[in-house]
Structures are given as structure tokens and as C-alpha cells.
Write a structure and sequence with these properties.
This protein starts with 42 loop residues before the first strand and ends with a helix. The strands form two sheets. Strands 1-2-3-4-5-6-7 form a seven-stranded mixed β-sheet. The chain has helices at 81-92, 105-108, 126-131, 134-144, 154-169, 243-253, 273-295, 300-304, 317-334; strands spanning 43-47, 51-55, 61-64, 70-73, 95-99, 119-123, 182-184, 187-192, 195-200, 212-215, 220-222, 262-264. It has a single domain (21-274), classed as 4-Layer Sandwich (Metallo-beta-lactamase, Chain A). The chain has 336 residues and is of the alpha/beta class. The protein is globular and about 60 Å long. It binds zinc ion. Zinc ion binds next to loops.
Length: 336
């Protein structure tokens, strides 16, 4: 699965039927967003007058301008770190700080474009997982060769050049180009250029190193991959993800949001706090489905293949299969 080639559409998005989990969200931008502009490769949507969300080529990024440089949350897939930085600078000036919401390569792949001169922050558990997936970053670069569309735009040609340059040096990429310089365990509040933000980790949910980023004065929360919109959520049990942990992390997120909070999910369209509640309900429904199926004597394989009417119809059915299997395992551990 991980070797399936990435395929980029004209809009510069990667679509792959058998994408590795790391490529989640390396898909086309949400439909309601405007076509990418002539001047930008990524799709940027303003969130108020100081912030922008960037869609496409990996997990959603959030850029916040401050008086002392900007804060960038998440760095997309490896081939797109440079274009992310160029476009962030063009919108908000120099990037002063990068935050990774968790280790998955579609959120940390572009770190190499910042790590030389910009501090990167992440959770303590992020570092060993980033070091352990160097092959994934390199594979992303190799898979992107020849896939950036020649659509005549200068911004696309620049990305083709980025990919060529990265490909020629891919074998020499080092973990220190991807790992965070500053890590923390639970919570951290900081002010940069007059903008306060807090990072918080509520225990294992999507992975064991999820952090959410809250900008109270802007009323924006980036949830990392604790929120998927329009597609089934990916439970990364190999990184200690679990549905119960995920729900308790969502419980911690909710009080930080009010009716007008803009919630930036890890994948999918901009949302509000109702989306957090929906994500929570999804897992409760999933657990009921699997509990009933186990009580009826269904095997793990049979449970994974269910397409229950109680679940919303969402993209990425392969993630539904993973989710059903993960909940089966969680319930089996409770009651073998
Ligand atoms: Zn993820």
C-alpha cells in the first residue's frame, strides 16, 4: 500500500486510492474552496484578518501573522515544504515558529524547509516517531517525481523544480531536518508578537502525540487529526491511538470553543464546534455497532467489512474498515 504511486491532479492535489495513512488529506482541496489562484500552488482560505488555512498536499495547515513573524501549524507532505514556506511568507511575512500537531508525514514532511532556521515545536512522543519514518519522507519525494502537473503556472513549475532538487538529495536527508527542537508533554502557553496561543495534549487519541493549538484572541483552534471532516477518521493503533482516548481528547477540546470558534480540522473543510461533537458521536456509534456485532458472534474480519447504516456516508471507506477493526480490538481487550 505504501508504495502505491501518488497521482496529482491538475489542481495540484494528490489522489491515491490506496494511500498510506501518512498521505491522508493529500487530496484535492474541499469543494467549496476557490480554485487555486494563479499565484499560489496551495489553496489558502483567510480565517479573519490575521490567519489563513492552507488546503491540499497533506494535512491542513494554519498560518497566523504576528508582529514578530508568523506561526505555522503543520507542514504537509515532504515535496511541498518549500512551496508552503514561499506562500506563507508571501501572505504573512517571515515564519517565526512551526508547530507540528503530530508525527504523521502528511503533517511533518515539509519540516525540512523550515528546520534550518525556524524553531519547530511538537509533543515529546513525536520525535522518535519522526526519526522512525525517514523512509516515508523519502518515498513521498520519490513518488512525487513527474506527478506535479505542467499546468503552465509559474508556481507549478517552481514546485517541479523543488521536487527535482529534493529527489537529487533525498538519500542525504537526515532526521534532524524533520524533528522538533522544542518538545513538551502536556500543555504550553506562549505569546509571540502579541498573539497568545496554547498547545495542549490530552493523552493518546489519533496518535500518542496529538496536540491541538488554540489562539484565544483569534478564536481559532487547529485540532490536528483529532478532527476529520467528510471522511472516516484514521485510528492509528500502531501509534497508541484509541477511540476512547480520542473521545476524551475531544472532551478537552470542546470547552475551548464557543459558537463562533473557527475549527481547523486535520483534514477536510473548516468547521465549528458542532463538528467536534459529531466526531465524538461517530466513535460512540462505532462502538455500539461493534459491540452488537461481537455479541452476535461476528469475527474481526466480518466486523471490519461491515458498512453499517448508522454511520454517516463518508469518503475513504478503507478508513472505516480500519476503524471497525480498531474498535473490535479495543472491545476484545476489555472483554476477551
Ligand atoms: Zn494523522
Amino acid at each position: 500500500m505504501e508504495n502505491s504511486p501518488m497521482k496529482l491532479t491538475r489542481r495540484g492535489a494528490i489522489c491515491t486510492a490506496l494511500a498510506a495513512p501518512f498521505l491522508l488529506g493529500a487530496r484535492r482541496a474541499p469543494a467549496h474552496h476557490a480554485e487555486p489562484s494563479k499565484d499560489r500552488f496551495l489553496t489558502w482560505t483567510p480565517v479573519g484578518d490575521k490567519a489563513w488555512a492552507a488546503f491540499g498536499q497533506g494535512g491542513n495547515s494554519l498560518l497566523v501573522r504576528t508582529a514578530e513573524g508568523s506561526i505555522l501549524v503543520d507542514c504537509k507532505n515532504s515535496p511541498f515544504g518549500e512551496v508552503l514556506r514561499r506562500e506563507a511568507v508571501s501572505l504573512a511575512g517571515p515564519v517565526a515558529l512551526v508547530i507540528n500537531t503530530h508525527h504523521h508525514a502528511d503533517h511533518t514532511g515539509g519540516n525540512h524547509a523550515f528546520s534550518g532556521d525556524v524553531e519547530i515545536w511538537a509533543h515529546d512522543n513525536c520525535t522518535p516517531r519522526v526519526i522512525g519514518q525517514m523512509n516515508r519522507y523519502i518515498a513521498q519525494i520519490k513518488e512525487s517525481v513527474g506527478q506535479v502537473p505542467d499546468d503552465g503556472r509559474e508556481v507549478s513549475r517552481a514546485v517541479v523544480d523543488d521536487v527535482k532538487r529534493l529527489y537529487s538529495t533525498a538519500a542525504r536527508l537526515k532526521p534532524e531536518q524533520f524533528v522538533a527542537k522544542v518538545t513538551f508533554g502536556r500543555e504550553r502557553t506562549h505569546t509571540l508578537g502579541g498573539v497568545e496561543f496554547s498547545l495542549f495534549h490530552a493523552g493518546p487519541g489519533h496518535t500518542d502525540n496529538d496536540i491541538s493549538v488554540h489562539f484565544p484572541s483569534l478564536n481559532i483552534v487547529h485540532t490536528g487529526d483529532l478532527l476529520f471532516r467528510g471522511m472516516h477518521p484514521f485510528i492509528d493503533a500502531s501509534a497508541a491511538g484509541s477511540t476512547r482516548g480520542w473521545q476524551s481528547a475531544l472532551d478537552r477540546l470542546l470547552p475551548r470553543c464557543n459558537d463562533s470558534t473557527v475549527v481547523v480540522p486535520g483534514h477536510g473543510e473548516l468547521a465549528n464546534r458542532e463538528a467536534i461533537r459529531e466526531q465524538h458521536r461517530y466513535f460512540s456509534t462505532l462502538r455500539e455497532i461493534v459491540r452488537d456485532a461481537r455479541a452476535a458472534g461476528r469475527t474481526r474480519r466480518e466486523v471490519s467489512e461491515l458498512d453499517p447504516a448508522q454511520l454517516p456516508k463518508l469518503d475513504r471507506p478503507e478508513l472505516r474498515r480500519i476503524a471497525l477493526g480498531a474498535v473490535f480490538d479495543e472491545l476484545s481487550a476489555d472483554n476477551p
